[in-house]
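Progress narrative, Year 2. Work on Type I restriction-modification system methyltransferase subunit from Enterobacter cloacae advanced from sequence curation to structure prediction during this period.
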Amino acid sequence: MRIVGRYEKTDISRMAQLLAHVTNGLDETPGDFLGRVFMQLELGDKYRGQFFTPWNIGLMMARMQLGNVEDNFRDKPFITLSEPACGAGCMALAFAFVLREAGYSPHRYLWVSAQDIDPLAAGMAYIQLSLSGVPGEVVIGNSLNDERRRILHTPAHYMGELEFPAADENECSRCMKAHTEQKATNHCGLFFSHI
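Result:
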């Protein structure tokens, strides 16, 4: 209530309407709804190389990377996706779409680490991944020098649907130690498979 109290009632109503538009946009047509709107409005910064991946390209890349989806889960309970320049989240959304298409719910079989230097782009990715039920983190920062200014975990990240096998406990500990030594703040850096 403290945050909402800073806004006028008309602004609160508009924010609710915008959220409804984004939710409906994601439901009606699978894809990167906010990224598509962003590019249609020509809000990208060509001087910073800001061109968002079109949905059909993201979908093609996800299908190529995942191949036969079932094969990805023969020896591990879930996969991770690292997206170092995520924009509005197209690639992560495409991976989630391909998993759903194959009968695998992303909130149980996917964990995403998406990062972008632009806070607006990272915010769009966070909104879309959150509304799509994808567990993971969206990092605002520079992937090239491991700068992590802010980390936003999606609601599905906190739901804890991913199952870490007991047999991999030592591997998890080693991985967490490695991330700690790198001074990364990602407390969920348990990567069993990098795609």
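Strands lie at 79-83, 110-116, 136-140, 150-153. Helices lie at 9-28, 33-40, 55-66, 90-101, 106-109, 119-131, 155-159, 169-181.
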